[in-house]
C-alpha cells in the first residue's frame, strides 16, 4: 500500500429529493476503494437535488481542500446539477475536476468543452483513478494514463484505451465508505432493504439496440466482454453489509443477472443461508425457463421479479434486437401466474427510433391486456432517451435527432423530470403526435398499470380517508387506462380536476 494523506472527494448527485431513499453510488464505491487501498483518504458525497444540500457538500469539500474532485455523471438532470457543482467548486478552489461514468464516457469531447472539467475517465475507473491521483500528486504528465481524455494546451487529448478489468475479484469494494446508512435503508414487508448495493458481474451476452450493451466498446473480436465476481467474493461483502445494517432484502445492479444459471442459483442460495433475500430480481423473459426454476426462486425467498419487457409490439421488439416476442412474454407470464405468491413487472420503452403511433397503441394495449389477465403483473413506462454510440442512438441521428451540443442540452433529455419533451428529442413524431405523446406520458403515470400496488397498500396503510382517496384516484386511473387504450387525449380535464383538488386539500397520496 502506498501512503498519501491527500483527500479525494467523489460526488454522485441524486436526481431526487432528500426524502427519497438513496441508492449506493456503486461505481464510486469501487473507485473510492481503489484509492483508499493506495492510501488516499476518500469521501463519497451523494447530495440530492436541493441546492442547499449541494452547497453544504461543496462547503465540506472546500474545507477538505482535496487533491481532486471526481463526479459520476448520468444522462438527464443529473448532468446539469453535476456541472453546476463542478463550476462552483472550480471557482472556489481551482481544484482539478474529473468526470466519469457510462454517459460521460460516450461523449468525452462534449464534457471537456466545459471550462471547469479537466479530465474524463473512459469506462471502468478503478485503475485509472489511482494513476490519476498519483500523477496529480507528483505533478507529472497525464499522457501515459490509459483510458482518459483531457485538456492540454487548449486542445483535447485522447489517450490510448484501457483494457477492461479481467479479474473482478481483484477489486476492492469497501462498504465502509458509505457514511450514513440510514439514508439508504428502507423497510419492505417489515424488513430492512437496501436497493442495489452490489454489482455481481459486468456485461451481457445480448445486445439490445437501445441499451448501452450494444456499444462497440463492450465487444472484443466479435465477442461480448463479460466478467463476474465469484460467489464467495459477493457473499463476504453481503455478510459484512448484514452485520453493519441488518439488511434482509437486496437487489443487484448487474446488466444481466442470469448469464450463468448455476452461478446465479449458487449466489441466491448463499445469500439465503445468511438471511438475505433478493427483492425484485431483474431478468430477461427468456431467462425464466420453467416451473422448476420458479419453485427454486420461491425457495430462496424471491417473490418479485422484474422483466425487461421493453415493448408490446412485435415489430418494435424486432427492431430492438430484443430476441423476444409478445407471445413468448405471455407464455412466461402464464407460467408465473401459477404461483400466487409471486408478483412480477415489466418496463416498457415508448418512443424508440422509428416507432409509430400504431406501435405505441399496440404496446399500451398489450400491457393493459396483460395487467387484466395476470393481475399480479405490473408495468412501468419509460420514454426513449437516445444514448450516443448505441445502435438506436445512431439510428435516432439518422432519423433526424440532432444530438445536443452541450452538457446542459443533454440534461434536458431526461425521461424522468422533463415536463415537456425537449425540442427535437423525438423527431420521428410530428407535432400532433408529439402533443399526444406528451399527454400519453401523463396518462400513463396516472393509470400506473399497477394493480398489485393497490392490494399491498390498502392492507398496509391505515385510515378511512386514505382508502377513500385511493378509491377516487382509482376512478381516474381507470379513465386514464381507457384513454390510453383508445389513444384519445383531447380535453385532458382530469388533470385540472386532480390539480385543483390536490391544491385545495393538499392531497398527499404518492404521485
Ligand atoms: C442503478 C441504475 C439506475 C438507477 C440509478 C441511476 C443513477 N442516477 O444513479 C435508476 C433506476 C434510477 C436508473 C435510471 C435510468 N437508467 Co440506469 N442503470 C443503473 C444500473 C443498473 C447500475 C449502475 C451502476 O451502479 N453500475 C455499476 C458501476 C460499477 O458501474 P458505473 O457506475 O458505470 O461505474 C464505473 C465506471 O463508469 C467508472 N466511473 C463511474 N463514475 C466515475 C467517476 C469517476 C471520477 C471515475 C474516475 C470513474 C467513474 O468507474 C466505475 C467502476 O468501474 C446501470 C447498469 C449497469 N450495470 O451499470 C443502468 C444504466 C446506467 N442506466 C442506464 C439508463 C439508460 C437509464 C435510464 C436513462 C433509463 C430510462 N430510459 O429511463 C434512466 C435514467 C434516469 C436518470 N435520468 O437519472 C444506462 C446508461 C447508459 C449510458 N450510456 O448512459 C445503463 C448503463 C443501463 C444500460 N445497460 O443501458 N438507472
Ligand atoms: S438483455 Fe438487458 S442488459 Fe442485456 S443488452 Fe438487453 S437490455 Fe441490455
Could you please describe the fold and organization of this structure?
With 511 residues, the chain is α/β, with parallel strands linked by helices. The chain has three domains: 7-160, 3-Layer(aba) Sandwich (Rossmann fold); 180-403 and 415-429, Alpha-Beta Horseshoe (pyruvate-formate lyase- activating enzyme), CATH 3.80.30.20; 451-511, no CATH class. It contains 18 helices and 19 strands. The chain has helices at residues 26-37, 51-64, 77-93, 102-106, 108-112, 126-138, 231-245, 261-273, 291-299, 314-319, 326-337, 357-373, 391-398, 407-411, 431-447, 451-460, 464-486, 493-505, and strands at residues 7-11, 41-45, 68-72, 96-100, 119-121, 148-152, 155-158, 185-188, 191-198, 201-202, 219-220, 223-224, 227-228, 249-252, 277-278, 281-283, 304-310, 343-350, 377-383. The strands form five sheets. A seven-stranded mixed β-sheet has the order 2-1-3-4-5-6-7, sandwiched between helices. Strand 16, helix 9 (291-299) and strand 17 (304-310) form a beta-alpha-beta unit. Helix 1 (26-37) crosses helix 6 (126-138), helix 7 (231-245) packs parallel to helix 8 and helix 15 runs antiparallel to helix 17. The longest helix is centred in the last third of the chain and has 23 residues, at 464-486. It is globular and about 65 Å long. The model is unreliable at 454-459 (pLDDT under 50). The chain binds cobalamin and iron/sulfur cluster (SF4). Residues 15, 23, 26-28, 30-31, 70, 72, 74-76, 78, 98, 100-103, 106, 121, 124-126, 128-129, 196, 199, 211-213, 253-255, 382, 385, 387, 414-416 line the site of cobalamin.
